[in-house]
Amino acid sequence: MHSSRKVDRGDAGGTGPVARGDDGVWHVSGHAAGRAVLRSADTVQAGLGVETVERLPPKIRRPVLYRDGAEHREYRRQTARFFTPRRVDEHYRGLMVEIAERQLAVLRRDGEAELSTLSFRLAIDVAAAVIGLTESRPGIDGRLERFFPEKFGRPGLTSLTGLRWFLRQNVQFLGIYLKDVRPAIRPRRRERRDDLISHLLDEGCRDGEILGEVITFAAAGMVTTREFINLAAWHLFTNEELRLRYRESLEPDRIAILHELLRLEPVVGNLKRRTTAEITVPDGDTTATIPAGALVDVAVHAANLDPGAVGPDPGAVCPARPVATGVAPAVLSFGDGPHRCPGAHVAIQESDIFLTRLFALPGLRMTSPPRVAMKPDISAYELRGLRVAADPDVVRY
Q1: Coil, strand, or helix at residue 191?
Q2: Cα dist. 345→85, 89, 134, 221, 377 in Å?
Q3: CA end-to-end distance (rounded Å), the chain
Q4: pLDDT digit string, tens, across residues 86-144
Q5: What's the pLDDT band for 213 if we cut at 50, 70, 90?
């Protein structure tokens, strides 16, 4: 099968849409089965450090990423207003344009820059506005950079390496709290604003609980958006026909291109769930029954190539491809069901605003391609070293 993917995640196939591995983990690579698992009311979040969170005292409120059931649904209902397409367009478009122009001014001034640095600053500033991290001290990008690279899948505390990691992460937690979260909480205790931290204060959350939510949203809204912007730019730099089409299209068609690139290269390649009851999911022409208590690994990167969902030649870039009824343009790249990414509209709109302006710069070119690293627990890519150059601003006297 022809594939236009830049990131190699290995064999996306397998023995079938649903298969039980020798380790007892159920592997799901078909779209219909993956969507059924993610939508099921009889599954809960797994992976992403949930095992550590489960060991916290019951009185500590879990971040939304680690909650399920009625409590999770109510939280999502209350916070949905921050992420609607209309609100994203009306409240954040101007801010996104301002932030994008500010970052691209650095490129125009210096003539060359690393794209991951520019895109991370963009993603941080946009997510900070939604969350309410507007009083941060300088250096938030460095604090987040130090916190997230080893976030998942680190050794346990029984080893010296694990102890060092635990202490290191707690130091980073403290730094983000003291320099980002606490400065944001203080003015909002006196006067609420229209942002997530104010909502959490209304819910009676303590500072530590707000810190947990902020870290969760930072991972979802800052880190993943940064990676996608780099990935999309890489495709556009190396595909002249697609680049010209993107530059010449109106916004709806540009969004279709970005959705297609995200379908092809989801930032997070695998999502895990644990069943709380027996569930039955589609398995080709039949069904498969997954028992209660099973760990299920949904291979998003494989499900997004399911011809039954996305049509023929699924590995090719085909913007606005005719997908099956009920299939989202980015397929499962934003997840599905109760834990579907709430910031999907934010991520796509800010990516388009930034990339549109980036590729309009005179003399824009890629001077070095990115290095690709993977976070194996969630099959997430990390792109670094993609350097871009553009004609510098000419100062006239």
Answers
A1: coil
A2: 6, 9, 21, 11, 26
A3: 57
A4: 988 998 999 999 999 999 999 999 999 999 999 999 999 998 888 899 998 988 888 87
A5: confident
CA distances, 374 to each of 10, 121, 284, 295, 384 (Å):
12, 21, 30, 22, 11
Cβ pair 268, 339 in contact under 8 A: no
- CA pair distance 94, 289, nearest whole angstrom: 49
Strand pairing category for 43-46 and 380-384: unpaired
Q: Which amino acid is at 297?
A: D
User: In the prediction, which pLDDT does 383 show?
Assistant: 96
- DSSP class of residue 212? H
Helix (H) or strand (E) segment spanning residue 270: strand 270-275
Cα distance between residue 170 and residue 216, in whole Å: 15
β-strand pairing of 18-20 with 26-28: antiparallel
Question: How many angstroms separate the CA atoms of 235 and 239, rounded?
Answer: 6
Neighbour order of strands in the sheet with 26-28: 18-20, 26-28, 295-299, 270-275, 43-46
Read off φ and ψ for residue 14, nearest 5 degrees. Answer: 145, -165
What is the dihedral sign for C-alpha 88, 90, 93, 94? negative
Please report the sign of the dihedral spanned by the C-alpha atoms of residue 235, residue 239, residue 245, residue 247. positive
What does pLDDT average to over the chain? Answer: 86
Residue 288: what residue type? A
* SS3 label, residue 117: helix
The H or E element that residue 373 is part of is strand 371-375
pLDDT the model gives residue 216? 79
- Grouping H, G, I as helix, E, B as strand and the rest as coil, residue 283 is strand
8 A C-beta contact, residue 149 and residue 263: no
Rounded to whole angstroms, the Cα distance separating 122 from 270 reads 26
- Cα distances from 216 to residues 44, 80, 103, in angstroms, run 17, 16, 25
What pLDDT does residue 153 have? 43
Beta bridge partners of 20: 26
CB 373 within 8 A of CB 382: yes
Is the CB of residue 46 less than 8 Å from the CB of residue 318? no
On the question of pLDDT at 55 being above 70, the answer is no
The CA distance from 274 to 294, in Å, is 6
What DSSP string runs through 222-240? IIHHHHHHHHHHHHHHH-H
Structural tokens at position 195? 């942002």
